[in-house]
């Protein structure tokens, strides 16, 4: 028997007479008051909405068995990729259902490891997460960052590896930064903002990041300011010490624009002078290593799909090509054991090729199938490296790669409660509105007939040069077990085909992304994978915007929508936290032509009263200081007021979570079970539980 959805009575939401003038266009913003997350009125609204939402979810018959099955699937051992410092290995492990993975260390792989840092012990509910680590060359000290309740704000501390004891050092107000130790292990470089006003900690804009050096054993107020730019409030800095310890390479970014600058400082020189090596922000540059003053970079300069170049810093600037651009997209490179490991994307699937330091091709690493590969880091003196392989039906498996023999061996292969042989993934290509060829992965149980009856979950992102590649998810596995099809569309705006593909989905071209997503849905329907009444769409952050735009432009095409932590108000996103940084992808309402483009697709501003919209479950979190929850609050209020269809419009608001990073396992399971239970009811699925 098919599940059905209970009826919903929404709590009332006050409308106010708020209007703004954008280049002569008067725009209403009746729910502006919801932007004040600290006000008693907003908190009461959140409480009332959650009460309605959780009453609805608790009334769904399959919610409990779905959570039980998902918990069982999720309960498998998970390892991270090992790295070695000072003759010791460091890696993460999760026994199965731990809220946060634990950092371990061991002298040898295969011996019983020792717990070095357990984030689960830092909070009772698992909401403090490990956000980054860096270990001294001698393996003596660990610098580690943590964040609470999903916030982007980090706090860094130092732990002695031998004893597991924390030193008194505490570094606060760090955001969007790693740590990088000096070669002698006496301190590390990091970037931070000035301490924010307490009331605006999670919503005020973030400007004027500064690069510091922290000397071990000293208080933070004595940290040395290495670099700042008082004339460039939007510039961000990332300091990385070269492997030989001589140089501090400074990545200078401006928001999310992939075009960056590269500066450097000679640490053997007592001068405070910072050299501007690549000051033009004319392309993307990623430092991967050096031979003395000669620096290797991955860049898309004159190569939109990427190439590897060498720059001699002692001579006039010239890019010497080491590995030329190919028909695949170069994602990253590493130097390990005097070899270059280059990681490519070929139609959104991973390839890794090995070259010598002069750019001569040596070999290609063989993988077990269509999937995603990460890793291949290490030192120039290493004879081994490690990597991870995953796919839609292959849980992350850790491999050791032996450089002398160019052979891979399995180091850790998890055992999950399912048979991957029962499922298959195919890659198809469809044509968008303007005839652009777009790839899509479709995963389903083998033998599934093409009869247009299958519940299908279409997922996308399409922005910020981010590539969607095959990845294993226990939640998605449950969806497949339920008889669902899982489709991932590789939309323009992402990085799958290089910078040209990215730019084709930005600013005035952003509508291309939504057209691609809509075309993906139409392909699935036309080829009888599914039908509109069985089709759900989902995405998070920029992907939440994608879902909001698609469901407002073509509401009849979808039966259900799951926008998560989405950017829904495209006219005011620059007003909060790091929102200004997205202008490189979205444009700004302050520019007339860009305002017109933004206003044309902004989900909040394109809802029309009396239209039938898909059943919608919006998800967000009170501590989200990346995409502030006001986006989701205002969109939900407007959609509830506009909805003329039978589909419910609900918002699920986490009270101790953020944008998504570091979310505890328990919360991930609960949220996924709620999503699937919502779709079971609103796609009228028949399950056997």
TrEMBL record:
PROSITE patterns the UniProt entry points to: PRO_ENDOPEP_SER
Catalytic activity, EC: 3.4.21.26
Keywords: Hydrolase, Protease, Serine protease
Domain Peptidase S9 prolyl oligopeptidase catalytic: 471-684
Catalysed reactions, semicolon-separated: Hydrolysis of Pro-|-Xaa >> Ala-|-Xaa in oligopeptides
Domain Peptidase S9A N-terminal as annotated: residue spans: 11-411
SUPFAM superfamilies attached to this UniProt entry: alpha/beta-Hydrolases, Peptidase/esterase 'gauge' domain
Family matches, as InterPro entries: AB_hydrolase_fold (IPR029058), Pept_S9_AS (IPR002471), Pept_S9A_N (IPR023302), Peptidase_S9_cat (IPR001375), Peptidase_S9A (IPR002470), Prolyl_oligopep/macrocyclase (IPR051167)
A Pfam family hit: Peptidase_S9_N
Family indicated by similarity: Belongs to the peptidase S9A family.
Protein name from the UniProt record: prolyl oligopeptidase
Species of origin: Gloeobacter morelensis MG652769
